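Input record (Table S2, row 485):
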Amino acid sequence: MSNFIQSSIGKKFIMSITGLFLILFLLVHLAVNSMIVFDSSGELFNNAAHFMTTNPIIKIVEPILAAGLIIHLWWASMITLQNQIKRDNNNIGFKRYKIRKNNSTSKWVSRNMYILGTLIIVFLVIHLANFFWKMKFTGDPLLAHDSNGVENAYALVTSAFISWKWIVALYVVGAIALGLHLYHGVWSAFQTLGWSNKKWRRIFNGFGIFVSIILGGGFAFIPLFVMIKSMI
Amino acid sequence: MKLTLKIWRQRLPKEKGKFETYYIENVSRDMTFLEMMDSLNEKLIQEDKDPVAFDHDCREGICGCCSMVINGRPHGPGTEITTCQLNMKAFKDGDTIVVEPWRVKSFPVIKDLIVDRSAFEKIMAAGGFVNADVGSAPDANSIKIPKDKSDEAFDAAACIGCGACVAACKNSSAMLFVAAKVSQFALLPQGKTEGLKRAWDMVMKMDELGFGSCTNTGDCEAECPQGISLTHIARLNREFIRAGFHKAAAENK
Ligand code: HEM
Ligand code: SF4
Ligand code: FES
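Output record (iron/sulfur cluster complex):
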């Protein structure tokens, strides 16, 4: 089995499984967050967030999720670095050809998955420090519990988006990076798993674009919605 | 036409190369790219200079020798053609043309534009064959093969082993080549004897020889002179992953 994991296709197999798993999580995450839009009292969102932080299934899934992200990131770094070192017979490093024209033959996003991934991770660290860390460990006055012990996550989230424009900007950039990562990532994961032929290639391609618009657009929309609503 | 050529010159495999600039006149629009290179070489020989070494053989798009990156595209501008099929009509009077060898670590430069593609032969030797019966030849058409399968195997078998896919790939991955070679056998009953072992052995050889891994960007497919499709890479992935699981199951027994 270790042979398989170390092979070029085996490494990609791990990338695709962890990537798809992260997408599943993000879909649930977006569903919970969309309550912010649908209920301006915040009650729906608070209850959903409370359920997500206390539910035993989530307690099991959380470490798996963290492991999935770390593995995805680690393998991505290994693959990208090895590919950079391996490719050139002239050792001119980043400048492999004097001229290279591939704008019409492949998508920019597919050639820059690591850069987009790095943007996602930068966003993620700030995002976790902002909300997850406060809810889980340090606490925040805004989070004051109601009589049922449900924290007011709604207040924490919306006040951040209302008071700081740069946070909104950061979230929009993060969401766009995610959307672009998945614009290539989703179909690529199915291709890596071998689930493609003439017919299914087009279906997975379309599905990938759909998922990337839903997740990228969805996560960008929520902070913008909260900010704009507070201004009118 | 008058052209300016910037061509990679490298005398020996280990020596550092550099770009040289040449000016050439009287290029006819009816010439092929290689004929233009020939006339440059004639001029260089007359001037007592070392002609540019480039690989070529069939000059009709079937041997896969003519490996050159022309103005940033393997086999030059245009789709589904090799350098020898490239016509000078693709260029204009006064153009500057940059010509480079495949830049692939596993294909070291031998001289100027010629690279050593024997890594592909090593991959073939690792699994790109079928076991055949000795004795008299079987009757033609005695093995029934569905049309769609034979068509797809035929498409894969069109690969000429030119290496443009690797030259085009940002990772120098040989996946399209290996996928074509695995597909042409995996789809046919004749290839079943070696089965999953073929995909396993060829991919392991490919990794060992230092080719990169696949990011599914698709530059290979776009630059392939034979139009080999990425769906063959999906088949290779399928075969290899299945081989991996079979191996794991066998180890656990
Ligand atoms: C929540 C976030 C993320 C999701 C949902 C995600 C999802 C995916 C998916 C589905 C793929 C396609 C896998 C394949 O081609 O088989 C992929 C590829 C990739 N991801 Fe991510 N990813 C995320 C975060 C990251 C991060 C943080 C990095 C690292 C900096 C990263 C770097 C990459 C790279 C480099 C590839 C392409 C690997 C290759 O084929 O060469 N991703 N991602
Ligand atoms: S797959 Fe296409 S580009 Fe690659 S070696 Fe075969 S013919 Fe050349
Ligand atoms: S010289 Fe044979 S393919 Fe170009």
